[in-house]
Amino acid sequence: PDREEMTAEIGIPVEGLPMDDDGREVIPGWEIPVTDHLGNPGDEVEYEYDFGDGWVHSVVLEEILDREEEAVYPRCIDGAQPCPPEDCGGPRGYERLLEILADPEDDEYGDTREWSSSDITRYPPFEPGVFDIGRIRFDDPRERWEFAFSDEPSESSAFGTAASPGENDDAIRRYHAVEEILEAFEHGMGYQREAVDQAIAKREDITPYLLQILEDIRDFPEEFIVEPEGAEELYALLLLGYFGERKAHAILLEMLRLPDEDLHELWGEILAVDMPMVLLRTSGGDIEGMQDLIRDRAAYQYSRTAGVEALVYGTVDGTFDRDTVLSFLCTSLDTVEPDDLPDEELEFTSLLAASIMDLHPAEYRETIDRAFDRGLILPRVVTRSDFDREMDEPREAALERLRASYSTYALDDIHHALRKWLDQDELYRESPAPHESGSHGSAKSKKKKSKRKQAKASRKKKRKK
Length: 465
What we know:
single chain; mainly alpha; disordered C terminus
């Protein structure tokens, strides 16, 4: 039936949320026989797996065969292609995954091949084009629900796996260890030093889940803004930066193009203090993505400034060439048209000039002078006398200050980087603005709270697959 005509949805009900987003009752799938909806050849149902990524399947009853006396049901009789790996980014991400794996010359081939072959979720390594009927397993949906949502999931089931009991026990133990870390990040009060140490020790296991948190922030930012509890996003951001996790970089560049208000409420001063170093450490030396962010005048000015600072810091550790960075930044400043410049753009050009000064741009003095003459630099950010004084100093003095700044924010001491935000009386970000008054505002608030509960349940379910 058409989705708009449906009065109920068959699936996994979430505690406290008996209805889906469209007000339809959610009926536990284990209470509904398949024959109620697939009774005649040609009957079709729609099955959606993972509401965040949107894997939508059409299930069609093609033929009804006689039961074989000694056969065990349900069973798979044939298939084509392997199941896509977990957390690959939905259908579009899966298409990109196949493109990369089909091209060994692709820049992302090595990392992607390693990731797709080292899944800890007890599924076999992903091999495009390979279908192994011997790996197909069926499980009880009630047991799966209990495993995904109960506080003490059973360790007797190994859903969707062909692993041996010993391997299952090891995978379950590893899962429980990761789950405890993530629970501490999400619900713990104050700085969770022990959980951070455990996360570092279990870097390979926990990284996919930290990446999933970043993806959730990118895709559903309101779920982290309404009723913020805990600081899982901060732990995810800084740990991925500390790990130098390259898969985080593209997610971050997309997230940093969220609306200005969302980014301000999500990250606050973290955009200026730690985001540049996270961008640098996850870049793997790729400069183009940050250059594109800096050029994007539709992006939040402080997102663009984080990209600028990342490039400047990259000249300290040799990730980027100073002359290349300086040429790009000065060209970006020199090509700005000053007429009718919005306040946000003027703020950005001023901060851009301040970052350029950190590189002692004596060879671009005329460019900076033109920027002052054209009114592109706010005096409250940088004055002409500030610039002249910097240029009168030896280059080494300016670069020494830059090295000191790099050392302060380098994330080498992850405990210090996290503790400075979390050992405070208030959470690191500012509280969101109050919701609108009146019944409309109240309904909007309740809907956002409901979405946050669904997202948290979805993340917990994904961790327990």
